[in-house]
Design brief:
GO terms for molecular function: 4 iron, 4 sulfur cluster binding; metal ion binding; tRNA-2-methylthio-N(6)-dimethylallyladenosine(37) synthase activity. It is found in: Cytoplasm. InterPro entries: Elp3/MiaA/NifB-like_rSAM, Methylthiotransferase, Methylthiotransferase_CS, Methylthiotransferase_N, Methylthiotransferase_N_sf, MiaB_methiolase, rSAM, rSAM_horseshoe. [4Fe-4S] cluster 2 binds at residues 160, 164, 167. Catalyzes the methylthiolation of N6-(dimethylallyl)adenosine (i(6)A), leading to the formation of 2-methylthio-N6-(dimethylallyl)adenosine (ms(2)i(6)A) at position 37 in tRNAs that read codons beginning with uridine. This protein is an alpha/beta fold. It folds into four domains: 6-130, Rossmann fold (3-Layer(aba) Sandwich), CATH 3.40.50.12160; 148-260, Transcription Regulator spoIIAA (2-Layer Sandwich); 262-380, 2-Layer Sandwich (Transcription Regulator spoIIAA), CATH 3.30.750; 385-440, OB fold (Dihydrolipoamide Acetyltransferase, E2P) (Beta Barrel), CATH 2.40.50.140. The chain has twelve helices and 19 strands. It has helices at 15-30, 54-73, 91-98, 114-124, 169-173, 181-193, 219-226, 247-255, 272-277, 284-297, 316-329, 356-379; strands spanning 6-11, 34-35, 44-49, 78-83, 104-106, 128-130, 151-155, 157-158, 177-178, 198-202, 234-238, 262-264, 302-309, 333-338, 385-393, 401-405, 410-413, 423-431, 436-440. Strand 16 and strand 17 (410-413) form a beta hairpin. Bound molecules: 5'-deoxyadenosine and iron/sulfur cluster (SF4).
């Protein structure tokens, strides 16, 4: 009997891409491929790309260059490039021209076609370049091979309608469309049957879930419905756009016992002027009011965020407004990004781009502030008793176990393997910059 062929998938970017990669892996398992843990042994290599910032694209180019050597050594190697970067105008042709050894180029809207493309390449030794411009409806029931065995990501809506002026996502992921609640619920029930304990609901803007569906339901309604799934321990969700986070959703988070008290609420900038130029549809004051409301209504809530530094036209005052907002809101953690020009977005045309050296200086100042506050927030946990979902052995210290608090903080502790997959209470003994240390109580 033939040895099973091996695949290797490299994924860049956000959880949406990670989920697409899990679907590609699921399809490949059905075709009797096995997963390889390295590129060198693989018969099929897939690069699932991201284009949200330029450095994500540069990484793809660099890595593709390296694959040429592998293909020279093994001409039967099949190389696929897919994901958001391929949805950009003229990108597929560019990739084929610059890296002619690539066998399959496809986008984000035709993932389900992959087995057909692969068959064509295997049987005819030809290459396939196919990008669909527009999203079709939602394809349900695709096979999926999950990366973790306890927590799973479940997409509840695809695409984005917000068109923030810096962002490429609406152009490469298409318009917002929500999955039917029963499809989501059934997927989660199946996951629970298979031993999953925690799910993270995914969408570019989960708070606008439900628009356009036959059944009248919104995100708050979905949270309440999923909170009833028996055997499920925790529900997380991301990302929340501040303009759509309603009181109804805040109440649902506060009242549903399985819904964790962690809200990822990208602010992007603390300056009302820049927020307007970014098309974010809220002011600095709106955001601060919302953050305060969350803290008052949801006990011990963690708020995390995304911030862009050096958006076109950002003045020292605008930047100070951002620093100041970070101090006011006291984020548990924040992802900070240097503004990156994305061709095809409105902000790429703005003539008041910020020089790199200023961007970098501001970025470092912001990072320092963000880290100081994260540390302070972690310190607040010292001496507290918190609920942990035990995920497994710690990556850095095999003698310890690790899990996360409801607020998403990583905790390392000494304990018995029996607790893996269970909720336990721990006393936090020490706070470190990016994690906590605990002991069983
Ligand atoms: N430059 C820098 N950061 C960006 N993001 C999106 N587009 C850009 C860009 N052009 C950031 C935003 C978003 C996160 C996922 O990526 O902060 O919330
Ligand atoms: Fe991009 Fe804005 Fe949509 Fe988020 S909400 S994906 S930043 S356009």
């Amino acid at each position: 009997m033939d040895k099973n062929k091996l695949f290797f998938i490299e994924t860049w970017g956000c959880q949406m891409n990670a989920e697409d990669s899990e679907k590609l892996a699921g399809m490949l398992k059905e075709l009797n491929y096995n997963e390889s843990d390295n590129r060198e042994d693989a018969d099929l290599i897939i690069f699932n790309t991201c284009c949200v910032r330029e450095n994500a694209e540069l990484k793809v180019y660099g890595n593709l260059g390296v694959l040429k050597k592998l293909k020279d050594k093994n001409p039967n190697l099949i190389i696929t490039v897919c994901g958001c970067m391929m949805q950009q105008r003229d990108m597929a042709e560019h990739i084929k021209k610059r890296f002619p050894f690539v066998d399959i180029v496809m986008g984000t809207h035709n993932t389900q076609m992959f087995p057909q493309y692969l068959k064509k390449v295997e049987n005819e030794r030809t290459s396939v370049v196919e990008i669909w411009d527009k999203e079709e409806g939602i394809v349900e029931g695709m096979p999926i091979h999950r990366s973790y065995d306890m927590k799973a990501f479940v997409t509840i809506m695809y695409g984005c309608n917000n068109f923030c002026t810096y962002c490429i996502v609406p152009y490469v992921r298409g318009r917002e469309r929500s999955r039917k609640p029963e499809d989501i619920e059934n997927e989660i029930k199946e996951l629970v049957k298979n031993g999953y304990k925690e799910i993270t609901l995914l969408g570019q803007n989960v708070n606008s879930y439900g628009k356009g569906l036959e059944e009248e339901i919104n995100f708050a309604g979905l949270l309440r419905r999923l909170n009833n799934v028996e055997g499920l321990l925790r529900i997380r969700f991301m990302t929340s756009h501040p303009k759509d986070l309603t009181d109804e959703v805040i109440d649902a988070i506060a009242e549903c016992d399985k819904v964790c008290e962690h809200i990822h609420l990208p602010v992007q900038s603390g300056s009302t002027n820049l927020l307007k130029k970014m098309n974010r549809c809220y002011t600095r004051e709106d955001y601060i009011t919302l953050a305060n409301k969350i803290k008052t209504r949801i006990k011990d809530a963690a708020i995390t965020t995304d911030i862009i530094v050096g958006f076109p036209g950002e003045t020292e005052q605008d930047f100070d407004d951002t620093l100041n907002l970070v101090k006011k809101v006291e984020y548990d953690s924040a992802f900070t990004f240097l503004y990156s020009i994305r061709e095809g977005t409105p902000a790429a045309e703005y003539t008041d781009q910020i020089p790199d050296d200023i961007k970098h200086k501001r970025f470092n100042r912001l990072l320092e502030t963000v880290n100081l506050i994260s540390e302070k927030k972690n310190k607040e946990y010292e001496g507290k008793i918190v609920e942990i979902l035990v995920e497994g052995r710690s990556k850095h210290d095999n003698t310890k176990l690790m899990g996360r608090t409801r607020t998403g903080k990583l905790v390392n502790f000494k304990g018995s393997e029996d607790s893996i997959g269970k909720l336990i209470n721990l006393k936090i003994t020490k706070a470190q910059a990016f994690s906590l240390v605990g002991e069983e109580v």
